[in-house]
Amino acid sequence: MSKSFPDGFLWGGATAANQLEGGYNEGGKGPNLADVLPGGKKDRLKLLSDTGFDFEIDQSKYTYPNHEAIDFYHRYAEDIALFAEMGFKTFRLSIAWSRIFPNGDELEPNEEGLAFYDRVFDELAKYDIEPLVTIAHYETPLHLIKEYGGWRNRKLVEFFERYVTVLFNRYKDKVKYWLTFNEINGATHMPLLGLGFSPENEETRLQDSFQGLHHQFVASAKAVQLAHEIIPGSQIGCMLIYAPVYSFDCNPENVQYAQEQARIFNNFCGDIHVRGEYPTFINRYFKENDINIEMHDGDLELIEKGTVDFISFSYYMSRTDKKNKTPEEIGQGNLIGGVMNPFLEASDWGWEIDPVGLRIALNELYGRYQLPLFIVENGLGAYDVVEEDGSINDDYRIKYLREHIQAIADAIEDGVEVMGYTSWGCIDLVSASSGEMSKRYGFIYVDKHDDGSGTLARSRKKSFFWYKKVIDTNGEEL
Question: How does residue 292 score in pLDDT terms, banded at 50, 70 and 90?
Fold first, then answer.
């Protein structure tokens, strides 16, 4: 296997507060978006894609797994000790905005929430694990959604600036690596998660989504500048969901269509974060879709000055597409659309598995931007079976991760600068897309099930010991 990984490579795992913390109404925390999302693939996916979601809790009709999740809120010390046992160099986590500002628009933060993350960061420091903190990860405070309409409203830029200023001042001696908005370019596909609003109808979806994105670009640029001012030596990055787009065949019309889809999905947000300007290719798209972005004086200058230090991204799948496709051809499991790729296998949830696509993604991103790259999400959601002796033999997960890590090594050999790799859901947690516990990603099994039952006991899967060896050898033994 390749020996390409550089010294100081940041191996670790990734999570999000809303998917593992629990304690949804403890410590002064206010309700957020995740607290009103029901569990179950059928219910959650329908609500994520429908219009007119009411943002209310109905326990007579739904379950809400995020309320307890895996109880990291009370068990963080136990979990961090397990991460340390694997040898983590970094741990990606998010901060729940509504733990710090319960409504989102207060003038003063909630001290109990700030103190909780102090304890988490101190626990990580005991083991020399570097925190990688996502500032906004599908956790918009519910009050900002109901009262202001989410990121469609310019007021959220002001509230976000106050939030990040508090974070940077409080944790300036504890956190060096920051990310602004999780998978920001996915917002047009699922504005509910990324932008905190449910489209009123399909006709307004794109206009409202791109307006909300503009507000996030301004907020991100402000955050970058504040991080550099408040925490000298800090590094702050953007976070994209990246999927190379393949043409279904060599028909030039399909090749052109695939290229257009890649530009809009993969490059639009990245260009603004990295190059500090709206790319020219978006003008035609806006014109054809009747999208008009309202900007304030100084927005473009602010975006120009607030470019990121590195690019982080999630990689789960590639996308294959063609211009004219029938409903039967659409890849049902791939949340980002496209048609089925006949050369790829798929996961239990229908997500196509393409490790070569990760090498392609790394080369595409580095070739376009020449900034350090950080793979902060990658993993296999699968059903795990606990054997009678308590073991979990997840060789399928090891195979998936081995092939993807080898693809990273190959990209590094290609000349790509890669900072680190954090496998998604390093400990089992609630799935964001389906609200299930049975869709497991972790090296650590958590005894919690879709119906809410379970002891929450932690146990090591076979992949736990495999990943420990990978980290111990800096990727030389896969």
Answer: very high
What's the gap between Cα 59 and its chain centre? Answer: 27
Supply the mean pLDDT for the chain. 95
- φ/ψ region of 350 (left if φ > 0, alpha if ψ in -120 to 50, else beta) reads left
Cα 365 from Cα 92, distance rounded (Å): 21
Burial code of 205-244, b = ≥16 C-beta within 10 A, e = fewer? bbbbbbbbbbbbbbbbbbbbebbbebbeebbbbbbbbbbb
Tell me: pLDDT of 337 over 90: no
Q: Under a CB-based contact definition with an 8 Å cutoff, are residues 3 and 367 in contact? A: no
Structure tokens at 461: 């899967």
Structure tokens at 228: 């550099």
> Would you call 429 helix, strand, or coil by DSSP?
coil
CB atoms within 10 A of CB 118: 13
Query: Would you list the domain boundaries of the chain?
Result: 10-472
Residue 143 and residue 149: Cα distance in Å, rounded?
9
Convert 15-44 to b/e letters by CB count within 10 Å (16 or more is b): bbbbbbbbbbeebbbbbbbbbbbbbbbebb
User: CA–CA distance from 261 to each of 122, 167, 282, 317, 421 (Å)?
Assistant: 43, 36, 11, 15, 26
In DSSP notation, 80-94 reads HHHHHHHT-SEEEEE
Predicted local confidence at residue 445, as pLDDT: 98
Residue owning tokens 């239990």: 348
Does the pLDDT value for residue 1 go beyond 80? Answer: no
Query: So which residues are the catalytic ones?
Result: 377
Confidence check: pLDDT of 46 > 80 = no
CATH classification for the domain delimited by 10-472, as one of 3.20.20.80, 3.40.50.300, 3.30.70.100, 3.40.718.10: 3.20.20.80
Q: Are 50 and 415 within 8 A, CB to CB?
A: no
Residue 335 scores a pLDDT above 80: no
Confidence grade of residue 3 (pLDDT, cut at 50, 70, 90): low
Measured CA to CA, the distance from residue 328 to residue 340 in angstroms comes to 9
Going by their DSSP bridges, the two strands 373-377 and 418-424 should be labelled as parallel
For 138-157, the pLDDT digits (tens) are 999 999 999 999 999 999 99
Which residues make Cβ contacts (< 8 Å) with residue 93, sequence separation at least 6?
14, 15, 16, 17, 120, 131, 132, 133, 134
CA distance 433 to 197: 16
Q: Report pLDDT for 332.
A: 65
Q: Determine how many CB atoms are found less than 10 A away from the CB of residue 364.
A: 18
pLDDT in tens, 403-453: 999 999 999 999 999 999 999 999 999 999 889 999 999 999 999 999 999
